[in-house]
Amino acid sequence: MRVVLVGPPGAGKGTQAQFIASHLSIPKISTGDIFRANVSGGSELGRKAKGYMDRGDLVPDEVTIAMVRDRLSEDDARDGFLLDGFPRNVPQAETLKKMLAEWDARLDVVLELVVDEEEVVRRLSGRRTCDTCGRIWHVVFDDKRDDVCDDCGGRLYQRDDDREEVVRHRLEVYQEQTAPLVSFYAEEGILVGIDATGPVEEVTERALAALRPFMD
Ligand code: ADP
Ligand code: AMP
């Protein structure tokens, strides 16, 4: 199954992606995670992406698309994947469509996580990420008093781009560039939206129920 998750920063895409992907036995591909790994590893790709990420802007399409093409060409993604954070604008969505058509494939479904802006700001201000396994936590909602990952013992860190002024800019970028994808995919007939508020497990249940009609 080929799935895209769409929703504003902080909607819970990464959180849900880890559960949905493991439930469906497909790889979770997060462009944000790949960029962050390249920034911390000091690669050429990371060097190209860093300034844009620090400001909360989108990394240029040619850089992002080349990276996604490489990742989707790997064996584990041949029969299905869950994309988190890509596409992020209409040109990326059009390129993805063409890329998949070259491989005689197409997206099955685009799942929109719907959350209001106030909740998104609350979520991002308390977000912590494990530097070892990548698991996403929240200081209040997960009652994290220390900075140790309960899953693997790794260290939890706060993303640089979760600072308030960068968050505000990322939300504007979402409204201007990414939100148009909702009508793009609605016109393609593959959009399904769910209420992404409430406990994480309930959102996962809603997501899986919404995806079920699109499964083979
Ligand atoms: P995104 O990938 O869409 O930017 P994340 O999955 O990183 O969002 O979630 C942002 C923050 O919100 C994280 O700290 C996460 O733990 C928290 N979060 C995710 N889903 C929920 C939920 N249903 N209820 C409360 N907090 C949540
Ligand atoms: P995320 O982890 O999805 O919140 O992404 C973090 C940052 O990585 C974004 O603010 C962008 O700078 C960059 N990024 C991630 N995905 C994309 C994409 N599809 N296109 C452009 N930039 C991206």
Provide keyphrases for this structure.
single chain, alpha/beta, globular, binds adenosine monophosphate
Describe the structure.
The chain is an alpha/beta fold and 216 residues long. It has one domain (2-116, 168-214): P-loop containing nucleotide triphosphate hydrolases (Rossmann fold, 3-Layer(aba) Sandwich). It is 49% helix and 15% strand. It has a five-stranded parallel β-sheet with strand order 2-3-1-4-8, with helices on both faces. Strands 6-5-7 form a three-stranded antiparallel β-sheet. The protein starts with a strand and ends in a 5-residue tail after the last helix. Adenosine-5'-diphosphate (ADP) binds next to helix 1, helix 6, strand 6 and helix 9.
Brief rundown of the structure:
The protein is of the alpha/beta class and 216 residues long. The chain is built from nine helices and eight strands. Helix 2 (31-41) crosses helix 3.
Rg over CA atoms: 16 Å
- Can you count the beta strands? 8
The side-by-side strand order for the widest beta sheet comes to: 2-3-1-4-8
Proportion of residues in β-strands: 5-15%
What is the total number of structural domains?
Answer: 1
What percent of residues adopt helix (DSSP H or I)? 40-55%
For the biggest sheet, the summary is: 5 strands, parallel
Report how far the terminal alpha carbons are from each other. Answer: 8 Å
Shape: globular
The CATH superfamily label reads: P-loop containing nucleotide triphosphate hydrolases
Structural class by SSE content? alpha/beta
- Helix tally equals 9
Please report the first level of CATH classification, the CATH class.
Alpha Beta
* Ligands bound to this protein structure: adenosine-5'-diphosphate, adenosine monophosphate
Query: What fold name goes in the CATH topology slot?
Result: Rossmann fold
